[in-house]
Every structure is written in structure tokens, then in C-alpha cells.
Amino acid sequence: MLRYGDRVRTAAIIPAFNEAESLPAVLAELALTVPDHDVIVVDDGSTDATAEVARAAGATCLSLPFNLGIGGAMRLGFRHAFESGVDRAYQFDADGQHDPSQIAHLLAALDHADMVVGSRFTDSGDYRVGRSRALAMGLLRWMVRLMSGQRFTDTSSGFRAFRRPVLEAFATDYPVEYMDSVEALIVALRRGFTVVEVPVTMRERTGGVPSNRNLRLAYHFVRVLILLVAGTGRRRSPSSLRSAAP
User: Which of 59, 155, 181, 182 has its CA 20 to 30 A from that of 117?
Assistant: First the structure.
């Protein structure tokens, strides 16, 4: 495992599609809060200056020739992180919703887990979603609990942290469809990884355009339900990839 001296090598993986407006502030906040972390921006076929902004800020920028969606961008980010010797990584949004001050909570939980999900809906968090989206998220929580036997309050959170064995697994086996976050949770649990949830606070996006659209959300919601039902009973024993926590 590659390390710089005694330091655990940590990276932020940031999928970005046309986020040139919000990305400068996001990267500046990360530089102030976690200056020792590597920053990997995956430019997901943007048509604006996303790639130029990332490189100007000193981040590693991986550019896809066309838009694959968050899942495809994350898979590339996982592959790069694993192949470059990163010990642990976290997913971070390019739109300003994730608060860098919360990264420490995710990383601390990696001491006793392979993957950590930052939940918007635990404790006294005031994060709100619309009624139709809240209903869909509630059904997904119920399905994940039914399939895995484990309860999560925020199955669609994109604020997550991963140890190196999960980086290796997701480098080739990360879902590339919409709602990748829900499917990735199921993939990790079925591979036998330990997944825990911690409370985090999130903010409103500062720029760009939200990817959620009602028809698209409905289509992929049904697709995820079919995936979860079809995969019943396929959970694997604990992965041989797991190693001692860094």
C-alpha cells in the first residue's frame, strides 16, 4: 500500500458536469479545510470550463469525451484513486452542497467500517426534499432494508467515504446507471463490506443545474426496485479484499 511517510493517503473524488460556476469555491474550500488531501475531479463530458477550472486549482482532472453520468464518472475516479495508491477516498459534490467540515466525520467512521454514508436525515438535520421525492426515497429505504437486513436513513446520499478494498471493488464494479448511489450500497453489502451511516449537514447547491427530473427519476426508481428484487439472496460472504483499516 502506497503511503507518503506515515501519512494515510486520502483523496476527494469529485464528479463534475458543467460545474464551472460552483467548482472554484468548492476547490478553494477543500484546499483550506483538507490541504493534505489529493483532489480528483472527473470532468463528465462538460461543455463549459469545468476542466480548465479544475486544472487551474491544481486538482487532478480526468476528462471523459462525453457525458456518462455520475456512476460512470465515479467508476473512473475509483479506478484512478486505486491505481495511484490512495488508501481511502470520499465522494464530494462539485455543486457546493457538501460541507468540507463534515469530511472528518466520514473518515473517522472508516476506523470501523469499509464504507461510510453521510446521512442528511439523522439527528436534528433540517435538510428537506419535495413530497414525491421523499416518497420515493422512503420506498428505497424500505427496499434496501428488506434486501440487506440493514437500516439506512439516506440511501441516496452522495456524500460517502471508502477504504481501499472498496476502491478496488468499485474500480470495476460500480453501477453506471442513474441512482448509482442506491445500487452501490447494495453492491457493497452483497460483497460483504461493512457499511455504516453517520449524520452530516449539507447545504443548497451554489450553481449548475440539478440532474433530477421527474420522468427520469420515476424510470430509474422502477429500475432500481427491479434490481433489488432480482438480487434477493445473492449477498456474498465477507470480501477477501478487506484488509486492516489504515
Answer: 59
- Phi, psi (degrees; rounded to nearest 5) at 130: -65, 165
* Alpha-carbon gap, residue 97 to 149, rounded angstroms: 30
Q: pTM value? A: 0.80
Tell me whether residue 4 is in a domain: no
Q: Give the rounded distance of the alpha carbon of 116 from its chain centre.
A: 10
Cβ pair 161, 88 in contact under 8 A = yes
Beta strands in 171-220 (DSSP E): 195-199
pLDDT in tens, 50-104: 999 999 999 999 999 999 999 999 999 999 999 999 999 999 999 999 999 999 9
CB-based contacts of 148, cutoff 8 Å, min separation 6: 186, 189, 190, 235
Residue 148 lies in a domain: yes
Higher pLDDT, 231 or 37: 37
Residues 6+ apart with CB under 8 A from 78: 13, 89, 162, 167, 170, 171, 174
CATH of the domain at 127: 3.90.550.10
43 domain residue, yes or no: yes
Query: For the chain, what is the domain count?
Result: 1
Grid coordinates belonging to 46: 462538460
